[in-house]
TrEMBL record:
Gene3D superfamilies: P-loop containing nucleotide triphosphate hydrolases. This is ABC transporter domain-containing protein. Pfam families: ABC_tran (PF00005). InterPro entries: AAA+_ATPase, ABC_transporter-like_ATP-bd, ABC_transporter-like_CS, P-loop_NTPase. GO terms for molecular function: ATP binding; ATP hydrolysis activity. Belongs to the ABC transporter superfamily. Keywords: ATP-binding, Nucleotide-binding, Transport. It comes from Collinsella tanakaei YIT 12063.
Amino acid sequence: MNRLVVQGAEKTVRGIKVLDGVSVSCESGRVLGLCGANGSGKTMLMRAMTGLMYLDKGFVEYNGRRLGRDLDFIPRAGMLIENPAFLDRYTAFENLQYIAALIGGVADEAIRSRIAYVGLDPRDKRKYRQFSLGMKQRLGIAAAILGNPDAVFLDEPTNALDESGYGLMDRIARDIKTRGAIGIIASHDAAMLRRVADEIVRMEDGHIIQRQRRAVSPAPMQNGLEGVPKV
């Protein structure tokens, strides 16, 4: 079983404390939701969790190994943090082929399957620069789940998506739990998080101001979280 632990996380950027004493954890087969408005610290916490940013105080551990000391990055992690970015002159399939080459062991058919899974056409010959914002977001999500990573980090994944994006998040969360992966999803959309997360932490100004876990762990996506505020 894999386990991700953040303990006492503190970070100051340009004189502003963006994380202040944050402690959370998540383990295999569960999804942690980070809820809060823009600037609440969700993205900064995700950056610290993945090794894209090191903390001033506190630590991040993955299976007992500390980022910045024992590990540079979490192994076998897929992520979409902030805005997706790909090569403008390549198709969705060609862009994911490059990522698959870095991961290793991902066949072309698996790439096509992931593109279709997020609602795009793997046969589409349009280049990335021709994509709408929603298509770019879907490709970013496809990249994050390519190769069935052990930990998936999605930052505001429903940005620019239409209503079908909610069903996509349900499927991704269900897949994370079924595979026994770790899921971290940050969003200002509390309604979506109530459907997919086993635990929600609400953040404000770099602090955690509220936590809520499922009273009973039901089948994925069948029951909401009791008592979580509709923010």
